[in-house]
Amino acid sequence: MFKQTVQKLLTGAVICETAYPEEYEYLKAGSNNQRVDDFLANLDRNLSYLESAEAYYCTFVQVDQSNSVELTALFSEMRATFRPLVEFLDLLLTASHADLPVRAKSVVNINTLFDPFEHDQTLRDQLRRLTSIKPFKTNKVETREQLVTVFQKLEEMHYLVRKNAGSSRYYASAKFDLIYLLIEFLNDSEKVELPEETHSQQEELLF
User: How many CA atoms lie within 13 A of 131 on its CB side?
Assistant: First the structure.
């Protein structure tokens, strides 16, 4: 389990009870947690814990020239998916009339969303725009098919998890909580120096 857990962390996985229950239970044991953290330290990384979501993930000890290339690649990947994910969360909040946004362990039943979208042109237009861009891009034109595509993609990206194949109930992973953490970071760090090509896009990420 040690190797399996470390490999997931190094590939950017957010280990929580929903997405990776076995690895999560493994890391909850203090001795295992310390062993993984000690190993990651050899790679100039830390085992970080997000208490509000009960999730573990891997972070760099510091940012310098030795990891600038990797960090730039990670930032580019994050930038490509961040805005569509935020738009999805806003769309879901509107369609479900929920008081709180989706967070770790939240349950979303896709069947309850079909009716609101079918009876609200504004929601359909927003969904159509969302499914015209990556990572949710699709040629599907029916609202139900577009929604299914979005949820399937989120499942592939480990934002949503189904306990049983074919189930309409999706459980949110802690990756959503990291989105909110990132939003807070961007809102609170106007003085952070970003790569030059991202300065013009910083305002687009804030809301």
Answer: 22
Closest CA to 128 of 144, 113, 149, 143: 143
- Displacement of CA 60 from its chain's centroid (Å): 18
- Residues 6 or more apart from 141 whose CB is under 8 A from it? none
Hey, which residues does 170 pair with through a beta bridge? 108
Both tokens of 177, joined, read 């909580």
The model carries a pTM of 0.82
Q: Of 55, 149, 146, 162, nearest to 108 (Cα)?
A: 162
160: left (phi over 0), alpha (psi -120 to 50) or beta: beta
Collapsing DSSP states into helix, strand and coil, what is residue 45? Answer: strand
Percentage, residues of the chain above pLDDT 70: 83
